[in-house]
Amino acid sequence: MAGTSLIREDETLESLFGGRLKILQKKKGYRYTIDSVLLAHFVEPKKRDRIIELGAGSGVISLLLAFRHPDVQVRGLELQADLADMAQRSVSMNRLEGRVKMICGDVRKAAEFLETRSQDVAVFNPPYRKIGSGQVNPATEKALARHEIAGSIADFLKAASHALEPGGRVCMIYPCSRMVEAIHRMRAGKMEPKRLRMVHSKPGSRGDFILVEGMKGGGEELAVLPPLYIYKESEGYSEELEELFRNLSDPAG
What we know:
Helices cover 28% and strands 28% of the residues. It has seven helices and eleven strands. It has a single domain, classed as 3-Layer(aba) Sandwich (Rossmann fold), CATH 3.40.50.150. A hairpin with a 6-residue loop joins strand 8 and strand 9. The radius of gyration is 17 Å and the shape is globular. It is an alpha/beta fold. Helix 1 runs parallel beside helix 2. The strands form two sheets. Strands 3, 4, 5, 6, 7, 8, 9, 10 and 11 form a nine-stranded mixed β-sheet that branches. It has a two-stranded antiparallel ribbon with strand order 1-2.
């Protein structure tokens, strides 16, 4: 089947790594953001790791991980059937069917779709906003991606704990304003935080997000990494972000 026949009228096709990785996105619905790209680059999988992305959306994190780490196996669990289908078509366009599979299912019912202790890494970019905080987007895809309508951070961590082997790692991105809740929920679920990095808009600004990795059943010891700045003090992206985007667009990868 030709690649163009996999694209629907309400979708666009984005190319990364000089066209070697293709990702379908909705024209007007859910579209991935820089949060997902930062998270995909924060994850440090080992060879032959089995990775589950919870709330996969367009599948961008799954695809980036599979592309950058050719020895891993990736599954994506996505609630919305049309997004799961779109993500699976992206998998097909990139000929990654042997290593990446999208599953349509609810994170809150993860046990129905994922075997216990079957994964080495769980990764997710969960909804950030509590119900009742801010205006809920009238577009269903965006509303589910932004508000905890179909799953809170506790639900995502519970699903991760179910799927992970003892010693498995969970990686996520979450707002700094809710960092205390994230760390509390992780420790309550015996997912000990091991690696943390703050994301700032620019030097001197308050933190916007945290990137955090925890270990299922891990002991107490946390490595706080240098901050990540998205922009320079002057105009333009920081050197680290420029390098990240250069790698995404460079045909050499």
